[in-house]
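Structure (tokenized):
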């Protein structure tokens, strides 16, 4: 392990970049050299990019530019944290690029997988290594792949602890403020009726607990946008539902870790922030007010041992004195509170370097979504041309030629975007245009 292990992590949204950040808790003894490529997209908060830059080198390359980057094959491993079919597309596209060898490829999930595990896994099959949170996900995967060509898919458990807290000291419960933090999330509450009901429950609890503060941590500030959009900001829901909320109920836009470090209690419906609270010594609980419902992910937390119906709680003093710790067996099953950690990923990748395992091939009729769409690639190239992003268009068209060497129009479009003279480029693009839908 004398030479640095060169690791490239790719993310295309605020959520996926946070997943990359959570992985980067490697001990210095592993000598990991980190590069993060944050694919440019509207809505990625500057704070997320600043945090990514603090972890190592930060690249801002589009997908086509990244795939044709001359340094790509100098990495030992590439972690792909993209959305939907892009996970599969990246693997297949990289395999098309001429090279004496390629880096190891791995991917994973961002926090707790609440739903669509099968769909999400279908994009990931065929990678050299797939990161899973814990035994729960590994058991689900084993049942899903039994009897298929992918039954031997390599996985590694990296756990659900996402915060680097080894050297930090936390307040004990009596030193903490009488605060309950509710962490807003994407999937819950999703519709206006449930959002209004949630706000009412929190407001009633605040009124019954005048010595406490109830803090609602919004995902984003008003006017901001991220990959996951909502039609109505929680501040508007608060105003529409309550008019004038109780004085001890308020929105708080400070970073969630800051709130968890000082608060006694944290409430969620099904957010991965449940485990962040444990990281910072804050006691989490799961709202049972909306039932055990797969559509909001609460079924995953049914065995946590800290289900509470906030509408039925006498007050927060009573909840504070009676709330138990989460069930340790459930935590271990989920992947928290054991020896699972990102360093297991690096050790597994080094093992694959020294003793490669052939990845299972994609076979028709099985689960894997493994068809890189030539048409979609052409559409992406045309979009880059419309945006006058010539480097991205050139990279995508070069990839198109690798897929279809005899496709004459793709070759013509490539020559057009390579033209340095703007008038000639515009003319050739005009005469070679084909509608690709």
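Design, position by position:
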């Amino acid at each position: 392990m004398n030479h640095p292990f060169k690791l490239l992590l790719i993310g295309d949204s605020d959520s996926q970049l946070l997943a990359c950040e959570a992985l980067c808790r490697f001990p210095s003894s592993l000598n990991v050299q980190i590069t993060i490529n944050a694919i440019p997209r509207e809505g990625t908060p500057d704070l997320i990019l600043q945090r990514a830059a603090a972890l190592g080198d930060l690249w801002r390359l589009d997908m086509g530019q990244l795939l044709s980057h001359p340094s790509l094959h100098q990495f030992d491993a590439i972690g792909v944290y993209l959305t939907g079919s892009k996970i599969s597309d990246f693997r297949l596209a990289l395999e098309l690029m001429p090279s004496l060898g390629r880096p190891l490829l791995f991917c994973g999930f961002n926090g707790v997988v609440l739903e669509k595990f099968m769909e999400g896994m279908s994009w990931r099959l065929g990678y050299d290594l797939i990161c899973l949170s814990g035994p729960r996900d590994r058991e689900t995967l084993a049942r899903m792949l039994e009897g298929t060509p992918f039954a031997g898919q390599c996985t590694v458990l990296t756990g659900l602890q996402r915060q680097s807290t080894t050297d930090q000291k936390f307040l004990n419960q009596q030193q903490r403020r009488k605060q309950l933090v509710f962490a807003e999330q994407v999937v819950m509450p999703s519709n206006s009726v449930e959002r209004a009901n949630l706000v009412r429950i929190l407001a009633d609890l605040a009124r019954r607990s005048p010595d406490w503060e109830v803090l609602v941590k919004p995902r984003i500030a008003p006017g901001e946008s991220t990959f996951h959009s909502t039609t109505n900001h929680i501040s508007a829901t608060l105003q529409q539902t309550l008019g004038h909320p109780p004085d001890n109920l308020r929105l708080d836009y400070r970073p969630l870790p800051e709130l968890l470090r000082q608060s006694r209690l944290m409430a969620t419906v099904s957010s991965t922030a449940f485990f962040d609270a444990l990281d910072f010594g804050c006691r989490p609980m799961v709202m049972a007010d909306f039932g055990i419902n797969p559509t909001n992910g609460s079924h995953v937390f049914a065995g946590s041992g800290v289900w509470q119906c906030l509408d039925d709680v006498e007050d927060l003093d009573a909840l504070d004195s009676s709330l138990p710790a989460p069930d340790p067996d459930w935590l271990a099953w989920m992947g928290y509170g054991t020896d699972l950690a990102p360093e297991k990923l690096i050790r597994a990748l080094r093992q694959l370097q020294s003793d490669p395992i052939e990845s299972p091939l994609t076979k028709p009729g099985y689960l894997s979504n493994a068809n890189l769409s030539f048409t979609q690639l052409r559409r992406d190239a045309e979009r880059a041309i419309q945006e006058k992003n010539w480097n991205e268009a050139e990279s995508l068209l070069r990839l198109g030629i690798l897929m279809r060497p005899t496709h004459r129009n793709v070759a013509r479009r490539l020559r057009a975007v390579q033209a340095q003279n703007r008038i000639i480029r515009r003319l050739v693009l005009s005469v070679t245009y084909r509608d690709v839908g």
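Reviewer-requested clarification: The longest helix spans residues 192-208. The chain has three domains: 5-159+338-354, 177-334, 374-431.
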